[in-house]
């Protein structure tokens, strides 16, 4: 991995952290409790958030990048919540609960013990202690300095490093175990707000002492989590330390390097997982009586199918973003193909994991693009029936950035939910009867005509042409454009300018942690550049990463020595 500590050898029996570990953990809990209210304070309207809590995927990716993918992370995280449709915006005001601190503590101890065990210490330590039964300040300083720089996403101050080496030595002396001392301090660092939160730290602008700017480390973290969903690597940290990121040329050099890295795929996957609401899969279930093939394996593979398709179109082929909704090419496994009712040739050996197979739908096939994927039609349907309203709402909000109001609390959905009705056999008929209510008609008018076009797909993603013996009518209309069937919908969506303007808005919001207004000059410029690039998504990422607005500091911001000191 590009950010894994590249250390030499070190042998000997591993030891468990000593009792002084508790002291370190208590210190971190107190430190986090002290600063969390400052970090969790909601920014003023239109203001740029100055910190965010690492999400579960960012936490896992950080550990994998720093200590290697073989470190096992088992445990639960505090719940994430969406704001303006994105988890990454919700993270800007997310605090950590008391129970969450306990879980983070368990994770920290478990990770630290794995790092020092005999399986990992040979590759993660560049030095060997003079004796494994006592302290070795020089070796501890080397390891903790390198690990701390990556965990905190900045160089440790001399005071910080001295204190950590001292604590490691004290624990090692008590436990008579060098590695136990290291684990105690490492566990403490993993529970520190310096790791669990990402700070945007300001400094005086040398070109204008009356102003402030983000320091290089803050810019590095913004870039890295945006493009890679991971902490800065060594090269990016060096660019932050040298001042390279404060120059246009230096920033462009790093952005170009990062966009050319294989790690960009990780970042793109993270963005679309957030944008498409894939966290909702954690609670998704289908009635097994109706959909016996919809297994937990299918739920996992459904997300992967869509992400593979996105990577193929946007990164591998560097295609037009709009093609995501029309492309007939995708990837399937045997289990997914069974749900779709598609025969595929799978040469998988018995007992081996299913292979992913490239598949292109025939020209006259009703499926096209990611809207026909299980990850969309099943995710936005109730357990035992389809829902054009849910699907239409999701399409409007996720892909077109058009907010749909929630229904009134006293709405009666009995007619819509009665799938056994002999009077209203299809969902179109039930929705028509339901939407005669004046309080419902307005919202249903913008959701149902597009959701009904996907009614050929049942609640699990299988294809059908009838419902309760009645033929399904999939005609509809999108913003004045009439069409017939799911392919017709995707063609109308492909040509709707809201699709691409929404992509630019969501990508900018994901990077900055705030949803811009539609009249934001920076957003307008990004949308124009996106169009000029023929909707090349990588070029959109480049323009966002180079945008001065991404690194803007609120006018009211000023150096806060008390907060910065507490954070570090």
Q: How would you characterize this protein structure?
A:
This protein is mainly alpha-helical and 568 residues long. It has 4 domains: 181 residues, no CATH class; 60 residues, no CATH class; 209 residues, no CATH class; 55 residues. The protein is built from 25 helices and 10 strands. The strands form 5 sheets. It has a two-stranded antiparallel sheet. It has a two-stranded antiparallel ribbon with strand order 3-4. A two-stranded antiparallel sheet has the order 5-6. β9 and β10 form a beta hairpin. α13 crosses α14 and α23 packs antiparallel against α24. It is globular, with a radius of gyration of 26 Å. The protein starts with 19 loop residues before the first helix and ends with a helix. The N terminus and C terminus are likely disordered.
């Amino acid at each position: 991995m590009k950010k894994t500590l590249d250390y030499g050898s070190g042998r000997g029996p591993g030891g468990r952290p000593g009792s002084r570990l508790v002291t370190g953990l208590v210190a971190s809990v107190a430190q986090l409790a002290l600063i969390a209210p400052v970090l969790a304070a909601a920014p003023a309207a239109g203001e740029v958030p100055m910190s965010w809590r690492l999400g579960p995927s960012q936490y896992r990716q950080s550990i994998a990048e720093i200590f290697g993918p073989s470190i096992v992370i088992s445990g639960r995280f505090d719940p994430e919540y969406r704001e303006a449709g994105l988890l990454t915006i919700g993270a800007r005001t997310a605090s950590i609960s008391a129970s969450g601190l306990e879980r983070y503590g368990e994770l920290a101890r478990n990770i630290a013990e794995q790092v020092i065990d005999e399986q990992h210490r040979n590759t993660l330590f560049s030095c060997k202690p003079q004796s494994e039964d006592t302290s070795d300040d020089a070796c501890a300083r080397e390891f903790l300095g390198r690990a701390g720089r990556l965990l905190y996403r900045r160089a440790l101050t001399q005071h910080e490093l001295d204190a950590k080496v001292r604590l490691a030595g004290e624990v090692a002396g008590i436990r008579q175990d060098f590695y136990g001392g290291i684990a105690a301090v490492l566990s403490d660092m993993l529970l520190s707000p310096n790791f669990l939160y990402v700070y945007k730290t300001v400094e005086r602008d040398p070109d204008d002492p009356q102003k402030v700017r983000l320091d290089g480390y803050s810019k590095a973290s913004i870039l890295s989590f945006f493009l890679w969903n991971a902490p800065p690597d060594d090269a990016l940290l060096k660019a932050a330390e040298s001042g390279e990121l404060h120059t246009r040329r230096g920033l462009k050099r790093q952005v170009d390097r990062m966009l050319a890295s294989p790690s960009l795929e990780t970042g793109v996957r993270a963005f679309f997982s957030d944008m498409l609401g894939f966290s909702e899969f954690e609670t998704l279930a289908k009635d097994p009586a109706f959909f016996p093939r919809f297994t937990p394996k299918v739920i996992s593979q459904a997300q992967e199918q869509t992400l593979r398709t996105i990577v193929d179109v946007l990164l591998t082929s560097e295609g037009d973003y709009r093609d995501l909704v029309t492309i007939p090419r995708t990837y399937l496994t045997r289990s997914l193909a069974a749900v779709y009712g598609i025969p595929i040739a799978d040469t998988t050996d018995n007992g081996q994991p299913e292979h992913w197979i490239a598949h292109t739908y025939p020209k006259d096939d009703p499926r096209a693009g990611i809207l026909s994927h299980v990850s969309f039609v099943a995710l936005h349907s109730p357990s035992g029936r389809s829902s054009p309203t849910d699907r239409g709402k999701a399409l409007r909000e996720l892909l077109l950035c058009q907010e749909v109001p929630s229904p009134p609390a006293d709405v009666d959905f009995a007619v819509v939910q009665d799938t056994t009705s002999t009077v209203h056999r299809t969902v179109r008929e039930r929705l028509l009867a339901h939407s005669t209510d004046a309080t419902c008609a307005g919202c249903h008018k913008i959701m149902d005509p597009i959701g009904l076009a996907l009614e050929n797909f049942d609640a699990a993603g299988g294809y059908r042409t009838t419902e309760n013996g009645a033929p399904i009518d999939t005609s509809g209309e999108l913003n004045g454009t009439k069409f017939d069937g799911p392919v017709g919908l995707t063609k109308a969506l492909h040509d709707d300018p809201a699709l691409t303007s929404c992509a630019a808005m969501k990508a900018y919001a994901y990077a900055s942690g705030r949803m811009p207004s539609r009249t934001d000059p920076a957003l307008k410029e990004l949308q124009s550049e996106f169009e000029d690039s023929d909707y090349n998504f990588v070029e959109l990422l480049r323009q966002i990463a180079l945008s001065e607005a991404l690194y803007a500091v609120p006018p009211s911001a000023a150096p806060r020595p008390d907060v910065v000191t507490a954070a570090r």
